[in-house]
What does this fold into?
Amino acid sequence: MIDNLKIIAQYILPKHLFTYLAGKLASAEMGSFTTYLIKKFIKQYKINMQEAKHSEPEYFDTFNDFFTRELKAGIRPILEGNENIVMAVDGKISQLGDIKAGRLFQAKGHDFSLRELLGGSDDVSAPFDNGLFSTIYLSPQDYHRIHMPIAGTLEKMIFIPGDLFSVNPLTAENVPNLFARNERAVAIFSTAVGPMAMVLVGATIVGSIETVWHGTLKAKSNKEIQTWDYQGQDISFEKGQEMGRFKLGSTIVAVFPENSIEFPADITAGHITRLGERFAVVKNQSKKSKTKQ
It folds into this structure.
């Protein structure tokens, strides 16, 4: 009953207004009150501040500064080897697997459209037909910077305005088409395994989505989809390099082409992810290495 009321409330309440007000509060410099909020948040979500570059709550001028805090250097080593694709975030795998008939599995009884997720263009979605995907949920206690799972060069970014439902497991199980209806940024990279789409999904009270090359993404007043073409600009990233961040928890969806990668048997839904650890391997990498020899 309570779960049903939580879902109904998300349809009724003004999510964009709540998110706007939360963003204003999170970006405000309020001295001791900001420190108080941070301390309460650390206690509530049992955040391990010993992993943070700056562990004292008093260091942060705003709640957003705290929420997007850096980790200590070397605390998340990046797995080496061209055959290894690494976790892009700290979080938990909600789902992963094959893209079937242009659909991605969301939760029991729900799937959603690849084409719609990526902004509605056949040109953008076609390279990922019959490919693979992984959806990773970042809870409030997680580190909220997003890093590259593989080296890549930025080709395009698409910002799609939309709803701001929560993206927690309860909502994923009960709100159809969740990740293709919420506000999101789609970054398309060229990589050694072909194109890769990194989809940063907004949610209720997520103050903003940022990328390192653009900054904060904002919807236009007419809510139209915005597209940026970066081909030829040589905006490149190494494996493990930061590419974006969330202000408050959300979800990423990583999408790869058919026959490009494979997930190890121990990487399944429910797996706790840590930045830099093994996520997938390049398909037939061992055969490619033998061929080169």
About this structure: The first helix runs from residue 2 to 12. The longest strand covers residues 152-160. DSSP finds eight helices and 18 strands in the chain. The radius of gyration is 19 Å.
